[in-house]
Design a protein that fits this description.
Blueprint lengths: L1 H14 L8 H8 L4 H17 L4 E4 L2 E2 L10 E3 L2
Antiparallel strand pairs: 1-2, 1-3
Length: 79
C-alpha cells in the first residue's frame, strides 16, 4: 500500500497548479475510495517519510512543518 500512496501523492501533486498543495484526504480517496478514512494514517506515515527525504513538504498553517513533530491538519506540496 505504501507504493500506492506514494504514487497517488505524486500524481495529485503533478495535477495541482505550481506551488499549490493537496490534502491528505485527496490521497486517501485516490487509494481507498470506499474506506478512505482508514487510509489516512498510512498517508501520514508515507508523507512523513517523503518529507524526511526532501521529496515533499508538509505544511501546517501554510508554513513548512517538521515531519517528526507536527500534529493536526496538514497539507502536502512539492519542495
Amino acid at each position: 500500500m505504501s507504493q500506492a500512496v506514494e504514487t497517488a501523492i505524486f500524481d495529485l501533486l503533478a495535477k495541482a497548479a505550481t506551488g499549490k498543495s493537496i490534502a491528505p484526504e485527496e490521497v486517501a480517496r485516490a487509494v481507498e475510495p470506499e474506506r478512505w478514512q482508514r487510509a489516512l494514517g498510512h498517508v501520514r506515515a508515507v508523507a512523513r517519510g517523503l518529507a524526511r527525504e526532501g521529496r515533499v513538504v508538509i505544511l501546517r498553517h501554510n508554513k513548512p512543518a517538521d515531519p517528526d513533530d507536527f500534529k493536526g491538519v496538514y497539507r502536502l506540496r512539492l519542495p
